């Protein structure tokens, strides 16, 4: 981990190439056949997408409330609000699944590292994944998460307020939209300004290259390579070290779309010394992953505190993604795989991610060793 995090590793940079070469040597020492998978993608969605979407979403909410209160047209306000957010959702759906790889502007080249054993006999159906690239942002991750949560709640409040205003207006004045009760207008306006304020950190969150990425994600790469040591060589498990995760999950999206036999991907991203383990997934819950995670945690005595034997063990199962956070498991899930991301940390961890303070000095490696044991046990349970 310290070797990888000795410098920043922006996707496609010489530093990332050097880090990938180091990972290749470690995997080859452990009996893997390793190949490099080069791909093209667009940096535009990863660099500018979140800022643009946040700006347009805030504008849709504010304009909707403006029409509802200032122009006394709550139904038109609802249409502007819900219509704008729906169009942004559709745009986001296309960008995340197609635009990252296909958008014609801001083209760049990056490289995944793909490691297999016994691939000449059959390709693996189970893959372990971690991204090696790093980035920094002008706004810390913890602020982005808080912004995403606050904007979601505020926009929901604004939409609900406009719905009440529209329902009252239609019920009492079916012919035309007239003044509505004055008590509802200020509430909707307040929610709209909270939404705009909440979106502001994301709007001004720009990509930089000033983080060494010790936690995010040298720790995840180190964990996956430790798992490679523990897995029986006869077990047909592949490893993919992805690139450009920090720019729209591009490497994972390309790999998932081109790997014909893949079914399950266990992604490892950000393993801290403290905090609880969190298994995050998008989409529908996957029962066999749930059961494998819980049984592996039970076998190892891992508790909800993340420390064996320190607290009463409770069920460790898949949980939703933290709002505002992207991880490679989402790319695998979008491609039809069963996937989740294993992380470990707390609020303090989020305060370090994507900042210049994410350096290897504070990471001792005990969390990485525990995470490796945990993933190896999950692999064993999956058969």
Ranges with pLDDT <50 over ≥5 residues? 174-180
Outline type: elongated
| SSE pattern, N- to C-terminal | HEHHEEEHHEHEHEEHEHEHH
What kind of assembly state do the chains in view correspond to? single chain
List the total number of helices: 11
Alpha-beta classification: alpha/beta
What profile does the largest beta sheet have?
8 strands, mixed
Walk across the major sheet and give the strand order.
1-2-6-3-7-10-8-9
Distance between the termini: 29 Å
Overall mean pLDDT: 91
Whole-angstrom Rg? 23 Å
Q: How many individual β-strands? A: 10
What amount of the residues lies in strands?
A: 15-25%
In percent, how helical is the residue content? 40-55%
List keywords for this structure.
single chain; 383 residues; alpha/beta; 8-stranded mixed sheet; two-stranded antiparallel ribbon; 16% strand; elongated
């Amino acid at each position: 981990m310290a070797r990888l995090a000795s410098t920043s590793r922006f996707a496609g940079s010489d530093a990332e190439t050097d880090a990938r070469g180091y990972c290749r040597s470690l995997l080859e020492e452990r009996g893997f056949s390793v190949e490099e998978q080069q791909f093209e993608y667009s940096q535009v969605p990863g660099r500018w997408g979140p800022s643009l979407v946040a700006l347009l979403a805030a504008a849709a909410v504010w304009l909707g409330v403006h029409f509802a209160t200032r122009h006394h047209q709550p139904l038109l306000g609802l249409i502007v609000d819900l219509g704008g957010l729906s169009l942004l959702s559709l745009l986001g759906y296309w960008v995340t699944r197609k635009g990252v790889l296909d958008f014609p502007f801001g083209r760049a080249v990056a490289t995944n590292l793909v490691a297999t054993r016994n691939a000449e006999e059959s390709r693996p159906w189970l893959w372990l994944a971690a991204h090696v690239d790093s980035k920094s942002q002008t706004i810390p991750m913890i602020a982005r998460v808080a912004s995403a949560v606050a904007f979601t709640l505020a926009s929901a409040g604004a939409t609900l307020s406009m719905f009440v205003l529209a329902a009252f207006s239609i019920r009492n004045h079916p012919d035309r939209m007239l003044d509505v009760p004055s008590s509802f207008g200020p509430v909707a306006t307040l929610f709209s300004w909270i939404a705009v304020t909440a979106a502001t950190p994301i709007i001004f969150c720009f990509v930089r290259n000033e983080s060494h990425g010790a936690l995010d994600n040298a720790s995840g790469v180190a964990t996956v390579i430790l798992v490679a040591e523990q897995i029986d060589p006869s077990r047909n498990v592949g490893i993919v070290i992805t690139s450009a995760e920090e720019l729209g999950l591009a490497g994972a999206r390309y790999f998932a779309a081109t790997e014909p036999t893949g079914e399950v991907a266990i992604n490892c991203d950000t393993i801290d010394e403290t905090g609880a383990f969190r298994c995050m997934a998008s989409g529908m819950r996957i029962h066999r992953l749930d059961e494998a995670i819980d049984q592996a945690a039970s076998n190892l005595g891992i508790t909800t505190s993340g420390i064996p034997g320190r607290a009463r063990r409770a069920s460790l199962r898949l949980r939703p993604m933290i709002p505002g956070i992207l991880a490679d498991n989402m790319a695998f899930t979008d491609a039809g795989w069963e996937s989740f991301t294993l992380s470990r940390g707390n609020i303090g961890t989020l305060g370090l991610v994507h900042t210049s303070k994410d350096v290897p000095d504070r990471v001792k490696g005990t969390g990485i060793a525990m995470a490796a044991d945990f993933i190896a046990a999950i692999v064993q349970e999956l058969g």
